[in-house]
Structure formats: C-alpha cells, structure tokens
Amino acid sequence: MPVFDGIVPWNKVKAVPKAKRGEPEGADVCTMLLTAFSLVLVLVTLPFSLCVSVKVVQEYERAVVFRLGRLRSGGAKGPGLFFIMPCVDTYKKVDLRTVSFDVPPQEVLSRDSVTVSVDAVVYYRVSNPTMATNNIEDYSHSTRLLAATTLRNVLGTKNLAEILSERETISQVMQNSLDEATDPWGVKAERVEIKDVRLPVQLQRAMAAEAEAAREARAKVIAAVGEQKASKALREAASVIAESPSALQLRYLQTLNSIAAEHNSTIIFPMPMNFVNQFLGRKSEEKIS
Known about the structure:
This protein is an alpha+beta fold. It has three domains: 85 residues, no CATH class; 101 residues, 2-Layer Sandwich (Tetrahydropterin Synthase, Chain A), CATH 3.30.479.30; 45 residues, no CATH class. Helix content is 51%, strand content 20%. The protein has ten helices and eight strands. The strands form three sheets. Strands 3-2-5 form a three-stranded antiparallel beta sheet. Helix 5 packs across helix 7 and helix 8 packs across helix 9. The termini are far apart.
C-alpha cells in the first residue's frame, strides 16, 4: 500500500515506496489487519452496518477521509454517497460555498499622517478541501485575521486622497494579496470591497471649508467670464444700433414697454426720438451759421 508524504495537496501527492521511506513494516501490517477486521465487522453486521458506513454529502460539500490518521487517496469525496470503514476511517466535511464576513473597523495611519477608520467586506470560498483541512487548523479564522492585517498594510501606503478616490484599486490590491497568501490553504479570495472610510471631525470640517472655498472661487471665475462676454455682446449691439436710427427707435420703444409692464405708479410719456433729433439738428445749423 503506498504511503503518502506529510501535509500536501492531494493532487500533488506522490506515492513513495516503503523501502525508500525507511518506515517499519509493522505499521503497514497493522493497518492492513485493522482494515480487514473492520471489513469483516461490516459484513457480519449487515445491514445495520450500512447506517454507519454509508455517508452523504451535499452538492456544495466535500468530505476529506482519513484512514488511521492518513489521508486516503483519491481526494475529497462527494457529492452524493460515499463509503467509510467503521473504527478505521474518519472524515471531515468542508463547505465549498462562498462565505462573506465584515472586517472590523481598522484605525489606519495613512502615508500623509492622517488617522482614518476603514472597514471592508471580504468574500472567499474553499477551492481545495484537502488543503483547507490538512494545511491549516482553522482556515476561516485565519482568513479573517489576514484580511484585517492586509487592510492595514495596504492603506498604510496610501495618502488620504488616494484612500478616498481609489477604492476600487485598493480593493483589487487587497484581493490579490489575500489570494496569494491563502492559496496554500486551499482558499480563494473572490472579492474585497471597502465599505466606509471615517475621518476625524476636525478633518471633516477642514475639508468642508476647503471645498466651499473652492466652489466660491469657481463661482467668481464663472461670473467674471460671464460679465466679460456680456460686455462684449453689449458693445457689439451698441455699434449695430448706432449705425441704424430705426434700430435705436425700436430699442427705445422696447424699453418703454418693459418699464410700463411693471405696474408702477409713475406715468411715462414717451418722447419720439425724431423730435429730439430735430432740435439737435437746428442747434447744429445755428452753430454753423
């Protein structure tokens, strides 16, 4: 019977001859005797032994089977029915569904010496049940601790502006770091999201004042540009009106109409523009004469 070496992925386990391992032959003989005794016990106690020997795992589960402490060949069992030998085999179920957990708020000092509180959510799943069982004691607890540590390490290299504006980039960096670190455990980090970034109250007020000042500056610039464009348009309109007396007369009447529409108590008697021009023309003739 081949003997398997240590805690390694089941798909990478290589059978090593017993002579090369230098293990005593008694251990192998004892394993065979106990296995044979268990098989005889199952056959004698049929059909009652089926209740103990036949196990079921769901579609989203896998069972890692050990025989006398050694990992059985063939990898994890399931889904469906599988057979174990009583008193010889033990098994452990592993859930393959995606699991999510909240990373507790972490007090992080950014690269520009600003203390922020950041929390995140991590989604992961077991990709290799054998490695998740053999290579680490508690993959769930270890993944949670590693996620909190990775969050602090990644945010410590970012400025405050980068933390606020580059959440997707930070999430991708965290996912890659977690995936690389948990790969020997048989765990796959599927997604990492930054939930919230909390700033100190004093810093929030300073940022609000800065944003308000920036908005006021932009508003003044926009108003100045509008005044400049309006003055140019008025200058062009005045040039056009000065070249045409009829246009000046129409503009005069339009102004009187808008003033009369305001329902004020002042009565305005319009004076024709040509009437004024006649007086101006006579005065000019008298000066010439």
